[in-house]
Design goal:
290 residues; alpha/beta; two-stranded parallel sheet; elongated
Amino acid sequence: MSKTPRKTVLISGTSQGGIGDALAKEFHRQGLRVIATARNLAKVQHLKDLGLDVLPLDVVDHASIQDAVKSVEKFTGGKLDILINNSGNGYNQSMLDSDVDIAKKMFDVNVFAIIEVTKAFAPQLIASKGKVVNIGSIAGIIPLPWGGYYDASKAAVNHLTRALRIELAPLGVDAINITTGVVKTKFFDNLNAPKLPANSVYAPAKDLIEPVMAGAGLEEAGMEADVFAAAVVKNVLKSNSTKDQWVGGNTFIVWFASTFGWATIWDVIVPRLFKIGEVTKRIQAAGKSK
């Protein structure tokens, strides 16, 4: 009897220390052929050393995407079983102080690249009746302050994945959305300690706001990246995967409030979590002292 060929998974954004890195290792442990990608191959050398295939892939560069498609076609003969759209950028800043050019670049990576990469690999996914897996976030559900553009980009991921699932169904391809909670990675390290501008209207409360922008306090609630990856991979490899999987720290409370709460429930919950009342007092006090 001939062996069943190994399934192949391509993952974008697998630089060391991130979610993509953990997913690549877990798929490898489960026996799949893993194609780990990153803009800088030096950041995935550790995966190559483990026996994974690695490819350069810049998800906002058309030529880079097409080169990756051609490489995968040579590797597999024209089939791709699983595509994991994991690449993502962060941008934490108050909306009044935000730079729209930075926000647009983030949307290019977090939102538009998902569709561009999926379009490019669609023939290979259709050939294998495969799966597209997009890494969304609870930030797309709960309006976290001082990161509104990032929240919006992840809300777009959540919705685009649902639309993709409907459109891809006639082609035999599934689409899975991962509503990711807090996971212990180097995500906030890559934000370079975001600061409020000196002239920000929120400057009187910068000692409260800037630590939130830098992710302070989230580490305690975070799930270990390998635990997260094991849960995601287990679901993706099922014949009938959960289409919208919630996994990671703080996911239950966000799911519960968004499912059973009223439309403006976050107006009650979020200000308490992020000391918005104290921020208000600081700003008002500063105004009176002028």
